[in-house]
From TrEMBL:
Residues 11-63, 64-118 form the HTH myb-type domain. This is Uncharacterized protein. The keyword Transit peptide does not apply. The keyword Mitochondrion does not apply. One of its GO terms (cellular component) is nucleus.
Amino acid sequence: MDKKLSTMSHDPEVRKGPWTMEEDLILINYIANHGEGVWNSLAKAAGLKRTGKSCRLRWLNYLRPDVRRGNITPEEQLLIMELHAKWGNRWSKIAKQLPGRTDNEIKNFWRTRIQKHMKQTESFQQQSNSETNDHQACTSQVSTIAEPMETYSPSCYQGMLEPFSAQFHTNPDHSSCCTNDNTNYWSMEDILSMQLANY
DNA sequence: AACGGGTACAACCGCGACGCA
DNA sequence: TTGCGTCGCGGTTGTACCCGT
């Protein structure tokens, strides 16, 4: 038994890499006439020198008529962060809550934008730590979220997103860096607000 | 104008789950 | 129960494009 071999192709006839316009048209026309599914036989029947897997990916992530292209809106960004806090890297599950967005798109968005900002926040934090070693209030708050993405668990920021969510929708004038006990540090919502503003 | 680094996104790969004979 | 084909997911890679120098 090797299921992997069934999907891996060592056939030199199989094309890889970027899809051409002709291939796209063939796939679109074929699916329009015969419907999607059974991707391996679809690829053969359509005359495409692609694996079924590749056809499926191309259709789902790019060619489907209901795929939304273009920038992720702030509302979608917020939703992605909330759902990621809830479910972790369950991209397809998250994508189902965002009509027209694909798991691949959301995954890429998360990796390129959110993780980048997390890293920036981390380095910012390290810098401020070295500058203000004796101000312990700062470190205790930000260090929780400044961990690398691979190591912190969604539950770390799950609760913290709740106030951010409410603030995002209802209170754009939220003032920045002081809490109600007047401790002088950046909260989760402050950081995320700044990050979103930079998009 | 040319080049190099960074970024965003399309596509591929490996693996597990599922259905069916 | 087992073997096989297929599907779907998450991680990773490749590359085109952008921007600063």
